[in-house]
Design a protein that fits this description.
The chain has 238 residues and is an alpha+beta fold. The chain is built from nine helices and eight strands. The strands form three sheets. Strands 5-4-3-8 form a four-stranded antiparallel sheet. Strands 1-2 form a two-stranded parallel sheet. A two-stranded antiparallel ribbon has the order 6-7. The protein is globular and about 45 Å long.
Length: 238
């Protein structure tokens, strides 16, 4: 069995602030630490997937406690919260960084917001150490209500699907449920692999977040509100 540096993969960082009272209160309330490891991972996974709605935060590099307070997230911010909750419950984890083609977001992001987005968008998934191997977990990005709305909207679509925050070989049966193996919902949109990092802090220090300068300000002040309203309309079946 491959050995891992467990203390490093459980440590707190400024972004993975898992000793924050808000995170500790959630972990205690849900009694996650008392669960067997497989069920512990699954319970945290289900919380991040379905109780943190798909949506766009102020930035990719927010601390986990802020993502929890927001109650929404996308690939990077949901991943941050997932990692912090896993580490708070003694599950070693790391980040795998990528970029995805922005075509994956078309539909969820429209108009000026889509034009503002870089061609290649910083993306990540979480790798969890479980039963002596690394699992790749990405299927938590789209909450169940949003994914079901997409499946209804594109009920007759056959073959690979790319758009509205998904890139999957089969929209009606994507591998998003925790069953002790890998999960994916955006994997097919990946266009560059940055490799693995112990934590999001190291990843963003090397590769940055998606926007900076004026574009970041415009996104935070105006554009993300449009995007989140659009996502809410899609979720509601509009």
């Amino acid at each position: 069995m491959t050995s891992i540096d467990t203390p490093t993969l459980l440590r707190q960082t400024p972004i993975l602030d898992h000793t924050h009272p808000r995170i500790q209160a959630l972990v205690a309330q849900r009694s996650w630490r008392q669960l067997p490891e497989r069920e512990r991972i699954g319970a945290i996974y289900g919380f991040v997937r379905d109780e943190i709605a798909f949506g766009y935060n102020l930035a990719d590099d927010l601390p986990a406690s802020r993502v929890l307070a927001d109650g929404i997230g996308q690939c990077n911010t949901k991943g941050t919260l997932f990692m912090a909750l896993l580490r708070a419950c003694g599950i070693p984890c790391r980040l795998h960084g990528f970029t995805i083609d922005k075509a994956l977001q078309k539909g969820a992001i429209t108009g000026a917001a889509y034009l503002l987005a870089p061609r290649s968008i910083v993306h990540s998934w979480v790798e969890v150490w479980f039963e002596g191997r690394w699992l790749e977990l990405e299927g938590f990005i789209l909450d169940g209500a949003y994914l079901r709305a997409l499946q209804r909207r594109f009920a007759t679509h056959q073959g690979p699907f790319c758009g509205y925050g998904a890139a999957t070989p089969d929209l009606q049966h994507p591998p998003v449920d925790w069953r002790g193996g890998n999960t994916y919902i955006q994997k097919e949109g990946i266009n560059h692999d940055f490799g693995v990092f112990d934590d999001p802090d190291a990843f963003y220090a090397r590769h940055g977040a998606n926007l900076s300068g004026f574009k970041r300000w415009l996104f935070q002040a105006v554009v993300r509100r449009w995007m989140n309203r659009n996502v809410a309309r899609i979720r509601a079946g509009g």
